[in-house]
Amino acid sequence: MQPQCDLRGLWLLLLSLFLLLFEVARAGRPVVSCPAACLCASNILSCSKQQLPNVPHSLPSYTALLDLSHNNLSRLRAEWTPIRLTHLHSLLLSHNHLNFISSEAFSPVPNLRYLDLSSNQLRTLDEFLFSELQALEVLLLYNNHIVAVDRSAFDDMAQLQKLYLSQNQISRFPLELVKEGAKLPKLTLLDLSSNKLNKLPLPDLQKLPAWIKNGLYLHNNPLHCDCELYQLFSHWHYRQLSSVMDFQEDLYCMSSKKLHNVFNLSFLNCSEYKERAWEAHLGDNLTIKCDTKQQGMTKMWVTPSNERVLDEVANGTVTVSKDGSLHFRQVQVEDGGVYTCYAMGETFNETLSVELKVYNSTLHGHHDTLNTAYTTLVGCILSVVLVLIYLYLTPCRCWCRGVEKPSSHQGDSLSSSMLSTTPNHDPMAGGDKDDGFDRRVAFLEPAGPGQGQNGKLKPGNTLPVPEATGKGQRRMSDPESVSSVFSDTPIVV
């Protein structure tokens, strides 16, 4: 009876083992023990500080976190793991001697979200190196020897949010990584500090949204000192961006082989930074973004009259779009002023003020102003020319005429400044009265005080004409001009 009980117990034990193996097989988990050089805790495998020259082959497929840091790994080949680790989301390979990574090395880990390759000996990032990591969110590559970064090394990484490239030897700024709408649309942190950057695409960086500039770290680089660089970082400081506020003392540039703090460039005489207002002309269409330091914030706009801007307003001039931007349609002069954007996020709130200046003219108003100024200038020049013509080229009056040539008779000269009214007859004159007249115009000089017109005119072969009756003697004072003499009837002799 006892042997039957032992046999029954043995069958029960075998049946239990069979059911256990069946459940494991149905779950798709082969019975794999923890690697000898690793410490396993549930789905976490820690193989750190074991001086491993290669990755252990017997890795459980359910591994979610694999720590291989502080070992002697030098190459990461495509076959580093014989099975696909579809549950792996974190891979730590820092503090090794990695100098080569195959472009197919990450094919077995398609769902990886965190990859640490820091403190290795990588020199180049080849094309499509990380393209298999389409779910990766954080990539650490700092403290390597990276000199060149291929423009396609980070292609197809639409979920990447943080990229650490500091403490390398990069000399070209990878602008393709931060352009809005480029290959890394969710990138919020790019650490390029402590490299060999000496030039930056400053106009392109100025156009970046604040949520990208807030995480763009550029300190400890030998940047070239100029006023444009000063204006860039002054604007970031004005906006209180973390990339400047956290490392303000480490932002320096090079000039004449000397280091200078970016905010102390007095030797360049750079102008102080001032926040510029938005400018528009009458009738323009304009869009002002609420440039917050964080994505996905809820935004609300308030007008200069402290009224909230809704999606649709009564006059239809100002509206708020779905992305939180303020849109003006056919802007008017009364739309000018300071608008305030209140942004609310999960971690912090932000308030931004934007000034709008509206010019009471159309976009082409400056051309009209130029034409008016040109017309005014031409009119002034023509006026000056006409005045000069009037002064110097108009027909001369009597005092401007040249003195007539004297008669052949030496007696026909005016030796006196006074004109005598007594006729002086030439005894040799004969013939008709009219034929004997020699008509001349005499100039009268002013007489002395109390002296009348009793001067004499020396006669020639002429007959004087008596002074017109009814005309009294005229006295000229010193201030009178010669023209006052000729305001009377001229004397003909």
From TrEMBL:
Membrane topology is: Single-pass type I membrane protein
UniProt keyword annotations, A-Z? Cell adhesion, Cell membrane, Cell projection, Developmental protein, Differentiation, Disulfide bond, Glycoprotein, Immunoglobulin domain, Leucine-rich repeat, Membrane, Neurogenesis, Phosphoprotein, Repeat, Signal, Transmembrane, Transmembrane helix
User: Which portions of the chain have biased composition (kind: Polar residues)?
Assistant: 408-424
| InterPro entries membership | AMIGO (IPR031283), Cys-rich_flank_reg_C (IPR000483), Ig-like_dom (IPR007110), Ig-like_dom_sf (IPR036179), Ig-like_fold (IPR013783), Ig_I-set (IPR013098), Ig_sub (IPR003599), Ig_sub2 (IPR003598)
What residue ranges carry the coiled-coil annotation? none
Q: In which residue ranges is the amino acid composition biased (Basic and acidic residues)? A: 431-442
Query: Where is the protein found, in the record's own terms?
Result: Cell membrane; Cell projection, Dendrite; Perikaryon
Q: Where is this region: Disordered?
A: 405-493
Pfam families, per this entry?
Answer: I-set, LRR_1, LRR_8
Q: What is its main location?
A: membrane
Spell out where the chain crosses the membrane.
Answer: 373-393
Query: Which PANTHER family does the protein's record reference?
Result: AMPHOTERIN-INDUCED PROTEIN, AMPHOTERIN-INDUCED PROTEIN 1
Q: Which family does it belong to?
A: Belongs to the immunoglobulin superfamily. AMIGO family.
Q: What does this protein do?
A: Promotes growth and fasciculation of neurites from cultured hippocampal neurons. May be involved in fasciculation as well as myelination of developing neural axons. May have a role in regeneration as well as neural plasticity in the adult nervous system. May mediate homophilic as well as heterophilic cell-cell interaction and contribute to signal transduction through its intracellular domain. Assembled with KCNB1 modulates the gating characteristics of the delayed rectifier voltage-dependent potassium channel KCNB1.
Q: What is this protein called?
A: Amphoterin-induced protein 1
Source species, please? Answer: Daubentonia madagascariensis (Aye-aye)
